[in-house]
Amino acid sequence: MIGAEEARSIVLAPLQPLAPVERTLAETIGLVASSTVYATEPAPSFTNSAMDGFAVRGVDVTTSSTRLRIVDAVFAGESSEVVVGVGEATRIMTGAPLPPGADTVCPREDAVVDEDGRFVTLQRAVVPGDCVRHVGEDLTVGQTLVSPGDVVDPALLGALAAQGMTSLLVHPVPRVGVLSTGNELVEGSGRLGPGQIRDSNRPTLLAALRQSGFVAIDLGTVRDSKRDLRAAFERARISCDAVISTGGVSAGDADFVKVVLAELFVEHARSMQVAIRPGKPFTFAYDESTNTPFFGLAGNPVSTLVGFELFVRPALRRLAGHHDLERPSLSMVLDDDLVRRPDGKLHLVHGVCRIREDGLVHVERLARRGSHLLFAVAGANCLIEAPDGEGYRVGDTVRALLLDTSELNGVAHDQRRP
Ligand code: AMP
Ligand code: MG
Fold this sequence. Notes:
By secondary structure, this protein is an alpha+beta fold. It has 4 domains: 4-19 and 173-319, Molybdenum Cofactor Biosythetic Enzyme, Chain A (3-Layer(aba) Sandwich); 21-43 and 137-171, Molybdopterin biosynthesis moea protein, domain 2; 48-133, Molybdopterin biosynthesis moeA protein, domain 3 (Beta Complex), CATH 2.170.190.11; 329-417, MoeA, C-terminal, domain IV (Beta-clip), CATH 2.40.340. The protein has 7 helices and 29 strands. The protein has helices spanning 4-12, 154-162, 201-211, 226-239, 257-265, 301-319, 405-415, and strands spanning 21-24, 32-33, 37-38, 48-49, 53-56, 66-74, 88-92, 104-107, 111-113, 119-122, 132-133, 144-146, 167-171, 175-181, 185-186, 197-198, 215-222, 242-246, 269-273, 276-277, 281-287, 292-297, 329-334, 338-339, 346-355, 361-365, 382-386, 391-392, 397-402. The strands form 8 sheets. The protein has a 6-stranded mixed sheet, with no helix packed on it. A 6-stranded mixed sheet has the order 17-14-18-22-21-19, sandwiched between helices. Strands 23-26-25-27-29 form a 5-stranded mixed barrel. Strand 25 (346-355) and strand 26 (361-365) form a beta hairpin. Helix 1 crosses helix 6, helix 3 runs parallel beside helix 6 (301-319) and helix 4 (226-239) packs across helix 5 (257-265). The longest helix is centred in the C-terminal third of the chain and has 19 residues, at 301-319. The protein is elongated, with a radius of gyration of 31 Å. It starts with a helix and ends with a helix. Bound molecules: adenosine monophosphate and magnesium ion (MG). The site of magnesium ion has 6 residues, from loops. Magnesium ion is lined by residues 181-182, 247-248, 254, 299.
């Protein structure tokens, strides 16, 4: 057996981010930038008003009653050439350039304008520079706007648009094929024959892929036949950036996935016994000719999910260009016993975590455990790590991988309800 860390490094070793593509800015949301971008314009690009009000010389407005003559008005999108002299003010709107002579803006709320509109009384003293937005406060020319590995979020996208950029080099979203293997699997809702089951791994993985932001491609079900498996993998390596299969990687007489992957990719295929539970058998292969990784996950539904989290998702994030590959690992207070027996393996136990009144993250493990009990892990938002040993007692601190941060928010929010 090898450790989970070692298995993950075997998987990550050959993987590189997918070749960059140029995308229009709007299409880059959530994608990972592949190159460095520098600001070519300062932001703001001119000194302007932060408020609707009056542009003044700050030194003129030192008392709580200053009367000034209004000499002009300037709106956003315009500019004024009229110099603001001693004892003068120009009406100014938010975003309008400061007129010459002015260095300060008094908000409209603090001003009373004479009925004829020729004079204004400012009812509050100012500090010179108040309510003014300065050139380059947000960005200076040459400043790094984007670095490789940055994820495009709405604010970054907007800042790029404000620079006049219309496209960006990003890593494409990996297109990931999913196929399930097994003669027992049937499609559709018809009656099941003896020993038959309906496929749950494929829908689970396709959903997990979409939830993590990848393009999921349904490659259907393949029977436990070397010829069929070989044909399916041959097709998949052309059409997908990565391929996940389930089933057929353990010690059964019909476990042909690992055999076929070994035949196809020879020294680039590796069947592993990983010291984890569930999910011990795992085959990884890499097709050098198309740069396609193949993940052969164990067939039991919970094993499939755990294998996806531990090995597949980090690998796909690397293809997508992300620098942080793993789920966040948090310390949590265990709210019930998590007893286990020593067996040389790291146990991964689905749990539900929430922020409690003490401000700490608490976690409850899900009561029923078994690699075939898929519904039992519905609603989990973390994977508790129970290293080899006797397990933990209530109140112990454990580490868990956070699978869903929104759940954590949701629970914290619930607690604010009366
Ligand atoms: P295998 O890894 O092929 O030996 O399968 C292990 C267990 O997982 C068996 O009980 C299979 O019936 C079950 N299994 C395999 N593939 C699927 C699937 N796609 N959906 C649900 N259960 C599956
Ligand atoms: Mg099978």
